[in-house]
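JOB MANIFEST
job_type = single_chain_structure
chain_count = 1
residues = 227
[input]
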Amino acid sequence: MIPRTINLIFDTIKDLKSCKWQYDVTASFLEIYNENVRDLLDSDSNQNLEIMYNEGRGIQVPNLKDEEIFSFADFKKYMKKAQKNRAVAATDVNQHSSRSHAVTKITIKGRNEETNATWTGSVNLVDLAGSESAKVNQGARLTETKNINKSLSALQTVMMSLHNQDKHVPYRNSKLTYLLQSSLGGNSKTLMIVNISPFQETCLESINSLRFASKVKEVKTKIKRNK
């Protein structure tokens, strides 16, 4: 999904050159591991970046590396580095289980050479860690599983709140929902893809995931162009 998105972006940029549009594209990669925000382009595993709200710019992560990319090849180079630094471990369920939520953010800034019109947009590509039963993990894996399930539960609470059109939406209950606040209920389009296991042992988790997906698809947001 992510490589296809990047290829589509650069194909569209190429097509729009004939209309005198020029674009700058940047990419950042982070993970939320045990409720710590880490820059996946920085090999320092002890970091814990802050998530802050900036009036006019929305949710920001200060000191997160934002690399300029000019092609899919550039993006692929940074993506490989990010994947190498992401927290992955073997569990009783999965030999290569992602132990964190990963967020790839692509920011696109455009300017028309004839009219001097400017345009800025961004897309968050999120790979959520899978929900697992705490009964099948021990030690460090158990701590990771608890934090993963806690943040996924917070995401479900936010989506249910949006579904019910509550006045207060608890985005700040987890780093994940706070970071994705503008993507979930803001002036944006959101697509969620839910993957489930074909195995009988994970039947309960699969059913819960499908129930969650059925509620999420009913959430409606009003989209308008920013001025």
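[summary]
The helical segments are 2-16, 72-85, 139-163, 175-179, 181-185, 203-216.
The domain at 130-221 is CATH 1.20.58.980 (Methane Monooxygenase Hydroxylase; Chain G, domain 1).
exit_status = 0
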